[in-house]
């Protein structure tokens, strides 16, 4: 708008000037030696303007002629830059979409059109393409070069950090994260890696201080986020767990603080209750577990709750108290059944275990029923039937981190060194053992010719996969390795008949060809 007004003003001034000259006629007399030229003022002004325009046109023409090579060169350079940037964007998109062949072609085109010193993304595309081709050494070399350039320093450190984590070199990954954190303290992944490293080293005070600085750098509206609160609870729980040996009172305060921040977090309650039990505050510890049991029944809570009772009868009594807090949960029925079995109340144990199975057909309940059957009747056929059902039952949840099973929760994974990766979940099912029918039917059982022929035909129709877990107790960590083993062995007689159903005959052990573990031809 201002520019339009300026042009209007200039035109108005020129028009006013020509109008004034036209209204005030006069002559311009020029003497050249013996000659005299007389022209009007208006004609002289017009001639002067035309002369200026001609001079300007000549100057523009000369400039265009002399600058033509440079402009032509710049045009070709711009075209090369355009082709190179198009290839670069297409290559990065191809890498993200998994199109390796297109990424390799685009990488070659980018190398032909663009200079890596002027375009930092060229090296990134080259490194990602090399990784897609599984050429890790050359990719790491590119990332090292990127980490030495001011423009690509952070991207280089991040690439080195990712590859170190992927290959299991967690110490090297921590060093790269520390370098990146020094370059840019606000980088989230570097701060998280530093936090993991401090926690794995047991430097909880420094880890909490680093976390507090990270939280303070966020807007006030995001500081109360549930994820941040949970991370703080994990840090406080880990700190209380480690410091109890030397500072029990401080550990108690820290554990109770963590439990109060997130009462539904089972490990926080476990650590707080364990510390209270050790300090002989049994009533308060019991209340913590009982309150959490109402909403989140957990096997570790029950074990800690009953661990202080030496007599089996007292454990049964206390388990019934816990049962009343959540009488609809599988864990409530199972803990009563387990306590009743230890106390010799076999019928009560059987009833509670069967009720637990109605809620969730888990492996632990079937194994417990096998133990109850062996103690109550000694019928090995029925015991094997319970074990066969345990093979196909759902696994009980355990603490898992980085694909491994652990006996107890830990704030930091001993494998990867990452914070808060432990999850309470059921492990994946292991493949069963394939048995021949001749191995399934023991020679000790006498069969009629008709039954023997039927069993033989069944064996020709397919193979039976079976595997039984012996015992319900879990084997803990071995020298800090963090793995949990389950002893398994093949069962010679496998039947899918549920012994709890009275209408099912169990006098003769048989193979059920309708069982999912039997393959039919």
From TrEMBL:
It comes from the Bacteria. The chain crosses the membrane at residues 43-62. It is found in: Membrane. Keywords: Membrane, Transmembrane, Transmembrane helix. Residues 512-521 have a biased composition (Basic and acidic residues). GO terms for cellular component: membrane. Its main location: membrane. Residues 26-129 form the HemY N-terminal domain. The keyword Cytoplasm does not apply. InterPro entries: HemY_N (IPR010817), Mms48 (IPR016982), TPR-like_helical_dom_sf (IPR011990). Residues 433-464, 498-521 are annotated as: Disordered. This is HemY protein. It comes from Bartonella choladocola.
């Amino acid at each position: 708008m201002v520019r339009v007004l300026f042009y209007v003003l200039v035109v108005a001034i020129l028009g006013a000037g020509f109008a004034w000259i036209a209204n005030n006629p006069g002559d311009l007399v020029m003497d050249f030696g013996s000659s005299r030229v007389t022209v009007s003022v208006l004609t002289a002004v017009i001639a002067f303007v035309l002369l200026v325009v001609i001079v300007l046109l000549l100057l523009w023409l000369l400039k265009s002629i002399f600058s033509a090579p440079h402009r032509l060169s710049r045009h070709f350079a711009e075209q090369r830059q355009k082709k190179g940037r198009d290839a670069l964007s297409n290559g990065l998109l191809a890498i993200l979409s998994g199109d390796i062949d297109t990424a390799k072609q685009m990488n070659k085109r980018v190398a032909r059109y663009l200079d890596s010193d002027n375009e930092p993304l060229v090296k990134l595309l080259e490194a990602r393409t090399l990784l897609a081709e599984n050429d890790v050494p050359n990719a790491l070399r590119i990332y090292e070069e990127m980490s030495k350039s001011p423009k690509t320093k952070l991207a280089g450190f991040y690439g080195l950090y990712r590859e170190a984590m992927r290959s299991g070199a967690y110490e090297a990954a921590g060093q790269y994260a520390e370098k990146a954190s020094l370059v840019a303290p606000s980088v989230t992944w570097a701060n998280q890696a530093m936090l993991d490293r401090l926690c794995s080293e047991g430097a909880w005070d420094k880890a909490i201080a680093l976390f507090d600085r990270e939280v303070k750098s966020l807007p006030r509206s995001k500081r109360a986020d549930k994820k941040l609160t949970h991370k703080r609870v994990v840090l406080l729980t880990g700190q209380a767990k480690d410091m109890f040996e030397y500072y029990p009172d401080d550990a108690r305060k820290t554990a109770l603080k963590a439990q109060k921040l997130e009462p539904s977090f089972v490990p926080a309650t476990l650590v707080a209750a364990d510390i209270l039990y050790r300090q002989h505050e049994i009533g308060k510890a019991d209340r913590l577990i009982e309150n959490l049991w109402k909403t989140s029944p957990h096997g570790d809570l029950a074990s800690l709750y009953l661990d202080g009772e030496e007599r089996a009868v007292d454990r049964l009594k206390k388990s019934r108290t816990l049962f009343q807090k959540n009488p609809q949960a599988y864990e409530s029925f199972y803990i009563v059944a387990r306590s009743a079995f230890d106390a010799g109340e076999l019928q009560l144990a059987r009833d509670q275990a069967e009720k637990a199975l109605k809620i969730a057909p888990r492996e632990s309940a079937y194994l417990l029923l096998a133990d109850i059957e062996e103690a109550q009747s000694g019928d090995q056929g029925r015991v094997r039937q319970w074990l066969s059902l345990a093979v196909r039952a759902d696994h009980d949840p355990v603490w898992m981190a980085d694909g491994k099973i652990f006996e107890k929760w830990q704030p930091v994974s001993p494998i990867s060194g990452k914070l808060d990766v432990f999850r309470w979940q059921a492990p994946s099912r292991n493949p069963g053992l394939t048995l021949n029918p001749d191995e399934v039917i023991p020679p000790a059982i006498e069969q009629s010719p008709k039954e023997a022929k039927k069993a033989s035909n069944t064996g020709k129709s397919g193979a039976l996969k079976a595997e039984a877990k012996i015992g319900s107790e879990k084997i803990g960590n071995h020298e800090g390795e963090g793995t949990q083993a389950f002893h398994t062995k093949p069962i010679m007689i496998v039947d899918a008949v549920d012994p709890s159903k009275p209408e099912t005959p169990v006098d003769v052990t048989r193979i059920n060809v309708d069982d999912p573990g039997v393959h039919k031809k």
